[in-house]
Amino acid sequence: MTQTITVIRGDGIGPEIMDATLHVLDSMNLGLQYEFADAGLAALEKQGELLPQATMDSIRKNRIALKSPLTTPVGEGFSSINVELRKRFDLYANVRPAKSFPNTKSRFPSGVDLITVRENTEGAYIGEGQALSADGEVATLTQRVTRRGSERIVRYAFDLARRIGRKKVTIVHKANILKSTSGLFLKTARAVAAEYPDIECNEMIVDNTCMQLVMRPEQFDVIVTTNLFGDIISDLCAGLVGGLGLAPGANIGTDAAIFEAVHGTAPDIAGQGKANPCALLLGAAQMLDHLGMPEKAAKLRAAIIATLEAKDSLTPDLGGTGNTMSFAKAIASRI
Ligand code: NAD
Known about the structure:
Blueprint: E1 3-8, H1 14-26, E2 32-37, H2 41-47, H3 53-62, E3 64-67, H4 81-88, E4 93-99, E5 113-119, E6 131-132, E7 139-140, H5 147-164, E8 168-173, H6 181-193, E9 200-205, H7 206-215, E10 222-225, H8 227-240, E11 248-252, E12 257-261, H9 278-290, H10 294-310, H11 324-333
Parallel strand pairs: 1-2, 1-3, 3-12, 5-10, 8-9, 8-10
Antiparallel strand pairs: 4-5, 4-11, 6-7, 11-12
């Protein structure tokens, strides 16, 4: 069966890493068809807007998008196109795996294999009710957490754990201080956890979680938390395993899902063939899992690991002398 996906080549290093990623996907005979759509600076230049209706329509129709990083120019209406996409498609679950890989500049070359499931649509991160008093002395922000939002993200985390054979979910919160918002999240999470007796569950306060992640990351399996805490924790986790070049992310909603690299457009190396395509490739592996092709996803991950182990054509961020496409070709040759 053919599956059409929306492909957004993006800005900066975006087109380079997307071409490399599609080269690898093409070598796998997945039956995927690509519908290219623009967003970000590329869309502004071609079509006069950052998020054209045709792109929205394409994602709505195909329900799956693979997206390179985007530039959101200052003063163009959105604070971030990525946040806007999450809002418009209600992509409530942000799923970020962090796994140790060989031959990376990581403090944990082995032992880390965790997934952060971050609530993506509410809480302090979305900047609701931001205001500055007329004298510029007092700034405020509304932090709104709902039972529905908490329930669906925690349920997503437990369902994910069950589906992919994970053993434990850690609920990360700050309910001791933020008694209303984090308190509601924790109370709701406990109720959901009780429905999954087959999955071990523990609770951890966010500041302690950060310390524990740095000292003993191997104790974590799946972490579920609210938006802002998840934003910070997932970058911390990316740092544990060697940085942004290896960190993918999925934004999942009921009607659509967008798969991406966590990093940005890297303007400092754009157009030079230096960008590491692995983060987007690992995002593509998450997409294959989501599309019901877990064995293909596993194959793709294994080819990436084998290429890292062989130090074959690695990009400069990994200490190699290869380039974006030679790295991708080395991965494709191992599939
Ligand atoms: P960045 O992630 O683009 O770059 C940070 C550093 O990491 C740079 O030194 C860069 O060269 C390096 N880097 C990033 N990805 C790499 C890769 N694949 N291979 C090798 N090195 C890589 O972060 P930034 O510089 O803060 O942001 C640049 C732009 O990206 C901004 O306009 C920002 O808004 C945008 N951005 C977009 C997204 C997205 O669309 N998902 C996410 C973050 C930032």
